[in-house]
Amino acid sequence: MALKSVRQRRMQANYLDIGKEDTPKFVLMGAGFTDLNEEPGAQTSSKRYINDKSTSKAITGYEWQAPYTADQIKTEEAIKYICEIGELQKTGAEAETNYIIVDLDQKVGDSGDTYHARKIHVAVEVSSFGNEDGEMTCEGNLLGVGDVVEGTFDTKGLTFTEKGETP
Question: Which of 38, 68, 39 is nearest to 137 (CA)?
């Protein structure tokens, strides 16, 4: 019996848009991030019909979030961007941006740099600035705003193309 290969976390790259206005600038969320997970948060409803013993359940929506923990390495642009949101207590649109999850094990086309990706508009929640043995950390959640957009991401050109659009 052959061993099953479990997908490695490093096969998923995460990018945060730190650009201004309508000029996206995607930067890699890598060095400094010690934890970054995805929680789809499926929302359900249930109903029991008179002729059934058991209830019937349905997925009605999602309350998506991605908890993160990062060391405060301010030379890492994504961390600097996130920390500034918390330090200046930004709210509303000033605390929102786009987040891209890239599947590096799902290449698209003949180009070696384009992969399956999902774009999620997020509100950046900074819940705490901590201290681990004298080193500053930052913790919080990326909170989903709206629906997930499927597409591709070019890791060289740092551009996202929505599914069905021409790059």
Answer: 68
Grade residue 46 by pLDDT with cuts at 50, 70 and 90. very high
Residue tagged 């029991």 (tokens): 48
First-residue to last-residue Cα distance in the chain: 43
pLDDT above 90 for 59: yes
Residue 146: φ, ψ to 5°: 85, -160
Residue found under tokens 């599947």: 103
Q: Which of 33, 14, 164, 167 is nearest to 98 (CA)?
A: 14
Nearest-angstrom CA–CA distance, 98 and 110: 27
Q: Tokens 């923990």 identify what position?
A: 69
| C-alpha span between 57 and 46 (Å, rounded) | 4
For residue 81, which phi and psi values (nearest 5 degrees)?
A: -60, -50
pTM of the model: 0.88
* Residue 83 dihedral angles phi and psi, to the nearest 5°: -60, -40
Structural domains present in the chain:
11-42+64-162 (2.30.110)
* The two three-digit tokens of residue 6, written as one number: 């479990």
Q: Which two tokens stand for residue 2?
A: 């052959």
For residues 160 and 146, what is the distance between their CA atoms, to the nearest angstrom? Answer: 17
